[in-house]
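Bumping with the actual sequence this time:
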Amino acid sequence: MKKSDIKRQAILETAYRLFRVQGFDKTSMAKITAQVGGSKATVYSHFPSKEELFVECMMAALENYMSGTLKHLEASRTDPRLALLNFGSSVLNFICSPEQLEVRRLIIAEATRSGTGKLFLTRSPPCVPSSQHSWPPA
């Protein structure tokens, strides 16, 4: 992994934690930079705005979850019933977890206030082809 990739990951992890603890408004690029180290220019070279960083944090968390959850389906190819039970259990555990409830509240609160809602719409979740995204719906 390249040094810039390691720095980018550190920024994402720090920002995700700060967004969850402090909320979007109280988390500044300066606070993120102070905890990650380096300069604001480095943070902005990876993420052009706080809104872009916020969306990237939330999408990275979703992608991380989905890659682990989809393994339940792949692991039980011989028993579809068991695979679906494990998958469903994993999904419910994820969406009902305190962390995800907190994250969804944060996303909903910021969707109209900071313009992140439009950014989310331009990003395709890892499990949905971008051709299935359009807003407003037809």
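The tokens above came from a reply further down the thread. The radius of gyration is 17 Å.
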